[in-house]
Amino acid sequence: MQGTRAIRALDRPDAASIPIIAMTGNAFQEDVQECLEAGMNAHIAKPIDMAKAERVIAKVVGEGPPPIKELEIDQ
């Protein structure tokens, strides 16, 4: 989380738009919320489901159809 907060706090025009996705084993709802509140764009729980990861990455970088809302994706 510290890394995300540091990136978002940078004095750079792209600091707010750099895609950051959490990939972690911490999959409780409060863990997901903490990642999003830190400034991450999305959260993917381990073990990684590649199809889900591809949908989330596509949404975050603005390509393809939007995936199911990250907070509602099967964890």
Automatic annotation (TrEMBL):
GO BP terms: namely: phosphorelay signal transduction system
InterPro entries per record = CheY-like_superfamily, Sig_transdc_resp-reg_receiver
Keywords for this protein: Phosphoprotein, Two-component regulatory system
Q: Where is the Response regulatory domain?
A: 1-61
Q: Which Gene3D superfamilies match?
A: 3.40.50.2300
Q: Check the record and name the Pfam families matching this protein.
A: Response_reg
Q: What is this protein called?
A: Response regulatory domain-containing protein
